[in-house]
Amino acid sequence: MKKIDLTAKYYETNEWARQQNNHFIIGITDFAQVVFGEIVFIELPQIGQVFTQGDPFAVTESNKAANDILMPMSGQIIEINTALPDHSEWMNEDPYGKGWLVKIKATNPKELDQLMNAEQYAAFIGVFFNKT
Predict the structure, then answer these.
(1) Which domains does the chain have, with CATH numbers?
(2) What digits encode the pLDDT tens for the residues 51-72?
(3) What is the pTM (predicted TM-score) of this model?
């Protein structure tokens, strides 16, 4: 069974966003890391860079292929997970926790409303979802 964070919102290319105070934490989903395979490398953006929803902002390399990671909502990078390049396994082991990628200041916070909630995302990836 794939893990889905009930507090996150989901983009159609398997990235998640979770609001934390006035910024948003961004990462890849548990489903994405299963599809990608064992992630062995991550290239993250620099603090201060600005991305529009759908822009590639990071690249992962796995035992299967290289994959672009797309920004689920527009914003400016305010923090990166600096430990992640030395611990890329966190994206496989804990994609909603230690495996987060970046934090952003949203330039269009209303885009969060366009993302899928946990139940919609579960249906999107075709897994059974039980809210209990």
Answers:
(1) 9-112 (2.40.50.100)
(2) 999 999 999 999 889 999 999 9
(3) 0.92
